[in-house]
């Protein structure tokens, strides 16, 4: 058991160009909670592709910018200071639109932590 104080800027980022992805849970060696700080430039999606989790619940808190979340049925627009929650089994893809005025900054939380994601395949795809 322990306590931690950490700044996401103290964590080395990893991911593709256009995004700044910092895994707080990896830095603290957390086993049951996925906790990530993500900054995405206009036109970039959050690191995960269009997906759903079998058991993980996810929450995205928008620190700066506007998060767009695509789902099979609609698109959600999540403003600064708001929280978007995804229950297990629901496909989604978060992104910062190409025409955004600036970067998107999000704190993403998922529990239980794990790699149970499945990629979305629409009925029209082969």
Structure description:
- By secondary structure, the chain is mostly beta strands.
- The protein has one domain: Jelly Rolls, CATH 2.60.120.10.
- Helix content is 3%, strand content 39%.
- It is built from one helix and ten strands; from the N terminus they run E-H-E-E-E-E-E-E-E-E-E.
- It has one helix at 24-27, and strands at residues 19-23, 34-40, 51-53, 57-64, 67-70, 75-78, 83-86, 93-95, 104-111, 117-119.
- Strands 1-2-9-4-7 form a five-stranded antiparallel beta sheet.
- Strand 5 (67-70) and strand 6 (75-78) form a beta hairpin.
- The chain is globular.
- The chain starts with 18 loop residues before the first strand and ends in a 7-residue tail after the last strand.
- The relative contact order is 0.26.
- The model has no long low-confidence stretch (mean pLDDT 88).
- InterPro entries: Cupin_2 (IPR013096), GPI/OXD (IPR051610), RmlC-like_jellyroll (IPR014710), RmlC_Cupin_sf (IPR011051).
- Residues 37-109 form the Cupin type-2 domain.
- It comes from Natronosalvus hydrolyticus.
- It holds the Pfam family Cupin_2.
- Keywords: Metal-binding.
């Amino acid at each position: 058991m322990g306590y931690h104080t950490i700044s996401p800027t103290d964590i080395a980022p990893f991911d593709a160009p256009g995004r700044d992805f910092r895994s707080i849970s990896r830095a603290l060696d957390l086993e049951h909670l996925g906790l990530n700080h993500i900054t995405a430039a206009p036109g970039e999606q959050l690191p995960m592709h269009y997906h759903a989790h079998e058991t993980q619940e996810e929450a995205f808190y928008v620190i700066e910018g506007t998060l767009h979340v695509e789902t099979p049925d609609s698109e959600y627009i999540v403003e600064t200071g708001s929280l978007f929650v995804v229950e297990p089994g629901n496909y989604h893809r978060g992104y910062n639109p190409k025409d955004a005025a600036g970067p998107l900054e999000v704190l993403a939380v998922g529990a239980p932590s794990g790699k149970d994601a499945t990629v979305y395949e629409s009925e029209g795809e082969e």
